[in-house]
Write a structure and sequence with these properties.
binds iron/sulfur cluster; globular; alpha/beta; 10-stranded parallel beta sheet; 12 strands; about 15% strand; single chain; 10 helices
Length: about 325
């Protein structure tokens, strides 16, 4: 039977937004023949979005390196010798200059990332001033600062923060192979604080870290079963950085990456799915397939925190070739 013809209430094509995805259902989507999966993802994508536009975000590292956490993929952890130097929090003026330049290059959202386990209150004062300044430029604001308390989340909201990024990274079962310094529960708690403060949630994960397909199923099933789907779902391909424990990890088949994007699109049809880290190593063809699978956001600019990203010219060329425009 073609899934596309299935009009039952549990069909992915049914109009209702579901938050009760079972792992069996998510696994069945991953197992679909590729043409069926792509058709389903593209059909849902078109119900909710213009398929020829992509949202463009820029990510700036406002506080680089020296992080006490042990995330096995991350070159900013102080535990790994990756050549990333610990720096202080950037000055407000410098951040605003970067935001202006991102806006001129076509970005609609400006994300600020800090390599902290959690922000100290005095750091948060500075970040709130940055959020206010970026917002005043007419950009959407996003931050990723580690774990947040409920009070910190409310302070960020009051300063004008639109989105907070905090990824689940992987499945609950695989999580402790990647991070031991904070739990899955800690992450879910921060997401609750962000949601309760009225900030949009940006939450996704990383694939290609040595996890199984079942872990990718578990990650998507967890995200799609949150009481509210994250408004933004970044799906990252691991960037294997020398010096991190995952440097020697085997490269994930790009088609499996495309499948992960498609399943995210189908299970969270109204969310913006972001093709995030790992694009530097991706062929144009793979990126084009990701857009067909329902990815509709990218990070723009030559660097993603500390890892390389395609330059703006390369992105513009690809978007021109595909006839894709920036989402306004
Ligand atoms: S991912 Fe974030 S929390 Fe983890 S080590 Fe890197 S900067 Fe620290």
């Amino acid at each position: 039977m073609s899934l596309a013809a299935d009009a039952s209430p549990r069909s992915p094509l049914a109009a209702t937004l579901r938050h009760d995805w079972t792992r069996d259902e998510v696994r069945a989507l991953f197992d679909l023949p590729f043409p069926e999966l792509m058709f389903l993802a593209q059909s849902l994508h078109r119900q909710h979005f213009d398929p020829a536009t992509v949202q463009i975000s820029t990510l700036l590292s406002i506080k680089t390196g020296g992080c006490p956490e042990d995330c096995a993929y991350c070159p900013q952890s102080a535990r790994y010798d990756t050549g990333v130097r610990a720096e202080k929090l950037m000055a407000l003026d410098a951040v605003l200059a970067e935001a202006r330049s991102a806006k001129n290059a076509g970005a609609s959202r400006f994300c600020m990332g800090a390599a902290w386990r959690e922000p100290k209150d005095r750091d948060l004062d500075n970040v709130c001033a940055m959020v206010e300044g970026v917002k005043a430029l007419g950009l959407e604001t996003c931050a990723t600062l580690g774990m947040l308390t409920a009070v910190q989340a409310r302070r960020l909201k009051a300063s004008g923060l639109d989105y907070y990024n905090h990824n689940l990274d992987t499945s609950p079962e695989f999580y402790d192979k990647i991070i031991t310094t904070r739990t899955y529960e800690d992450r879910l708690e921060t997401l609750d604080h962000v949601r309760e403060a009225g900030i949009h949630v940006c939450c996704g994960g990383i694939v290609g870290m040595g996890e199984t397909r079942e872990d990718r199923v578990g990650m998507i099933a967890t995200l799609a079963s949150l009481p509210e789907h994250p408004e933004s779902v970044p799906i990252n391909m691991l960037v294997r950085v020398a010096g991190t424990p995952l440097a020697g990890e085997q490269k994930l088949d790009p088609l499996e990456f495309v499948r992960t994007i498609a399943v995210a699109r189908i299970t969270m049809p109204r969310s913006v799915v972001r093709l995030s880290a790992g694009r530097e190593d991706m062929s144009e063809e793979t990126q084009a397939l990701c857009f067909l699978a329902g990815a509709n956001s990218i990070f723009y600019g030559p660097k993603l925190l500390t890892t390389p990203n395609p330059g703006r010219d390369r992105d513009r060329e690809l978007m021109d070739k595909l006839g894709i425009l920036p989402m306004t």
